Amino acid sequence: LQKLIHLLQATDDPLIQEQALITLSNSAAFSVNQDIIRNLDGLSVIGGMLSDCAPKVKEKALNALNNLSMNIKNQEEIQVYITQVCGSVESAPLNSGLQLAALRLLTNMSVTSDYHYKMINSIPCFLRLLSEGIERTQIQVLKVLVNLSANPAMTRHLLRAQV
User: Fold this and answer.
1) Looking at domain 1-79, does it have CATH number 1.25.10.10?
2) The Armadillo repeat-containing domain covers which part of the protein (predicted)?
3) What would the pLDDT profile of 114-144 be if each residue is shown by its tens digit?
C-alpha cells in the first residue's frame, strides 16, 4: 500500500495513476487496509488526484475515496473534499462514470448528518439530475437526497431549492 501511494505521488502518467487507484480502491474493501491507507497519508494523496485533469483518474480517485469512506475516521479527513466532489457532480458530463462516482461518494458521506451543510449549495443540481439523468443517476441522486432529508436541519434547504 505504501508503494502504491508513493507511486501515485511520483508519476504523472494517467494510466499508471488509474491502475494504482484501482488497486488502492480494491484494497480499501478491507477495513484493516482503510486504517493503513489513512495512516500512510493516502487519503490526502488520493484526494489530491481529484484536481487531476484526466476524468478517468478523477473517477478512480472518487471510487477509492468512496471505499475508504466506510470508516468514520476516514470520513473526518475525506470531508474536506465534499465541496470539490459536489463540483464534480455539477461539472461532469450527465450520466458519466465520473458523475456517478462522485454521487456514490456523496451518498456515503451523507449517511450521517455531520457534513450535510457542505452539500446545501448542490441541492438544486441534485434535483435537476432527477429530471435529466438516466435511471442509475436518478437512483444515486435519490440516495443522497434521502440521506439529506433524514436531517431536520435540511428540510428548509430541500423545500426552498430552486429547480
Assistant:
1) yes
2) 1-163
3) 999 999 999 999 999 999 999 999 999 999 9
